[in-house]
């Protein structure tokens, strides 16, 4: 893969960056999921490397926090431009190392670019209001300051975008960042950090503002326990010390739904990224009057999905990320059968090199079957039949997780009931669109086991800052609040 040199990658690469490149931990080989062939090697961080990197990141923060927010935004803009210049080769690396199709790999880098653009504007708008004081000669100000050091632990399925959501916003807020990507996508972490490091160097600011510590459970656990981490963003890597709750997604189709929207939406949400998105649709609830028709049309659409090498522009569906993911897929299919499900299509490993499995539709399971409530990060869609709105809304909310959900209907009243207090309890609630493919301008995150904050748009920037309420007395008197007299 000689083209990897365009990203500054070699056969063996240092996996630690804190202003300089290094690493004294284990050397890990990364593999291509499409053929299980080795790509290159990355030397991971040791605990000593991690300790040094945290110290340098904390020192770098002292410099970064003093730089005016609009200037920080200008540097983030330059990072976006640098990513834009490498977008195709970075997208190719995402396909090669993660396994998603090329157009999705490019789209993921584009998402980071978009967040950089968004952050530039935000850098001139963050801040609190001046509030009316009840005391004469006083000003009441809401002041926002950076939290300090933001730890970012990302998963294999979005090895670029999730880091981008966090780092671009955290940086304009005045924070330093320390990134640990998934061990199986270490090359992507190194390549992205090299691009960022060049921009920081060109602007004569400390490189440790965007530090990197590649590693597995040992480094992740250290970050989770480190009180010097002022904020930790943690996205579902099972290599880390404790399991992060995975995300459940739901989709409901009523009998008045436009099936021309339903079929392509369900197909993309269930099959896109080979079912490995955090917003992948796993449960498809169909009204009993249209159940059989939709299943037949969906099975026909599944049969036409173009399976192949992820870097082939005609491919819509690539491999699973690891051999372990293939085993989880097979186990889930077997459990579905044992619990009363019928496999309409798929259910098998594809006979070709790499981690390829068939996209699968399962029908006949009850809404509360254990496998229906279990996330597998695999392209398995459980199609469930319902009769009335009330029961299906309840089924939506009966699980412990809640990231993304969508309803397909033309009934305006039903739409607003779905969006209301007795409707979906997910963090992302859609109408007549897929569960996948959120825009960067809205806050991204879930509820219940998939709660714990928001990333990307809206007012998510507030998570990366601490709020102070400041009262300034510019008069010569000392009136007390609430009219209290103390004399």
Automatic annotation (TrEMBL):
Protein location: Cytoplasm, Cytosol; Mitochondrion; Nucleus
Record's GO cellular component terms: cytosol; mitochondrion; nucleus
Residue ranges occupied by any Aldehyde dehydrogenase domain in the UniProt entry: 26-467
One protein family per Pfam: Aldedh
Parts forming coiled coils: none
UniProt GO molecular function: betaine-aldehyde dehydrogenase (NAD+) activity; L-aminoadipate-semialdehyde dehydrogenase [NAD(P)+] activity
Top class in the EC scheme: oxidoreductase
EC number: 1.2.1.3, 1.2.1.31, 1.2.1.8
Chaperone among keywords: no
Pathway: Amine and polyamine biosynthesis; betaine biosynthesis via choline pathway; betaine from betaine aldehyde: step 1/1
SUPFAM superfamilies named among the record's database cross-references: ALDH-like (SSF53720)
Source organism (scientific name): Apteryx owenii
Keywords of the record: Acetylation, Cytoplasm, Mitochondrion, NAD, Nucleus, Oxidoreductase, Transit peptide
Quaternary assembly: Homotetramer.
Catalytic activity: (E)-4-hydroxynon-2-enal + NAD(+) + H2O = (E)-4-hydroxynon-2-enoate + NADH + 2 H(+); betaine aldehyde + NAD(+) + H2O = glycine betaine + NADH + 2 H(+); (E)-non-2-enal + NAD(+) + H2O = (E)-non-2-enoate + NADH + 2 H(+); octanal + NAD(+) + H2O = octanoate + NADH + 2 H(+)
Role description: Multifunctional enzyme mediating important protective effects. Metabolizes betaine aldehyde to betaine, an important cellular osmolyte and methyl donor. Protects cells from oxidative stress by metabolizing a number of lipid peroxidation-derived aldehydes. Involved in lysine catabolism.
Keyword Transport: no
Main localization, broad class: cytoplasm
Record's protein name: Alpha-aminoadipic semialdehyde dehydrogenase
Family: Belongs to the aldehyde dehydrogenase family.
